[in-house]
Design brief:
The chain is an alpha+beta fold and 254 residues long. It has two domains: 17-176, no CATH class; 188-246, no CATH class. It has helices at residues 91-102, 139-147, 168-173, 188-198, 206-217, 221-229, 234-246, and strands at residues 17-19, 26-32, 37-44, 47-51, 56-57, 68-77, 82-88, 114-119, 126-131, 180-181. The longest helix is centred in the last third of the chain and has 13 residues, at 234-246. It is globular.
């Protein structure tokens, strides 16, 4: 005799957030269903604090960790047939999204699916983002979005995106949490660190190397980082930086 309720299905613990580390190996297909938000993310006592692009904190809560750029996007995951908030901090993926948004042939993310290919694991993980041919949102996605709308702006105030209603009191309270400075939405230093990690080169002493490089060439950190990121110079930079890590006293050749 069946004592279970009619049409019963075990409801396992789930979340409406999707992390990059939880992407499946191989191809992951999804559709961004509304305008993303971007900015800066810092952590205190394992709690995230997110800030708009122009409000980067002057310093992180933890001096050992840097404030990182982030994008939060509301997406339809075709594999699970549901909506999730996907947070992205990988500089290479953010750069790919920016390029798509600025491209006249692609533009609005809601007009086409995205395929993200994941290879490797840990610090050796590589991601490749590519757009798929444009097509209208399906009726299934439209119905899900109507039933489960999200206010991504709530993430700037540690609110629940599915229930949060903005109030001036909450918004004003954030102004005193950290000093702000105007900044861009993506950090070249983060991009350089991620590029090194993909090449399996340690990045712990990168900022020290940049400082020494500035002294050697009488140049600014911005110019040094920009030069390192240039496609033609990047292999030479890796070789020089790796040699410096093993023999810090050696002159830098880049």
């Amino acid at each position: 005799m069946d004592f279970l309720p009619e049409n019963y299905e075990y409801a396992s613990k789930s979340t409406s957030y999707w992390k990059m580390k939880d992407m499946l190996q191989g191809d992951n297909r999804f559709r961004i269903v509304q305008k993303p938000i971007a900015g800066w993310i810092d952590w205190k006592d394992n709690k995230p604090f997110r800030y708009p692009p122009k409000n980067k904190p002057l310093k992180p809560f933890d001096p050992e960790k840097e404030v990182k750029s982030f994008w939060s996007v509301y997406v339809w995951d075709y594999a699970r047939k549901d909506l999730f908030i996907l947070e992205i901090t990988q500089a290479s993926i953010i750069k790919s999204l920016i390029n798509l948004a600025k491209d006249e042939e692609w533009g609005d993310f809601t007009n086409y699916d995205l395929k993200l290919k994941k290879e490797g694991s840990g610090q050796q993980t590589k991601y490749l983002l590519s757009p798929l041919p444009p097509k209208p949102l399906s009726d299934e996605i439209k119905a899900a979005l109507k039933a489960k709308p999200a206010n991504l702006e709530a993430l700037y105030y540690n609110g629940d995106p599915w229930t949060w209603v903005p109030s001036n009191e909450i918004i004003d309270s954030r102004a005193n949490e950290a000093p702000f400075q105007a900044s861009s939405a993506i950090s070249p230093l983060e991009e350089l660190k991620e590029s090194l990690e993909l090449e399996k080169v340690p990045t712990a002493r990168l900022e020290e190397w940049i400082k020494l490089r500035c002294q050697t060439k009488n140049d600014t950190p911005e110019n040094v980082i920009k030069a390192c990121l240039e496609k033609a110079l990047f292999p030479k930079f890796i070789k020089s930086f790796a040699k410096w890590l093993s023999e810090p006293a050696e002159a830098m050749a880049v």
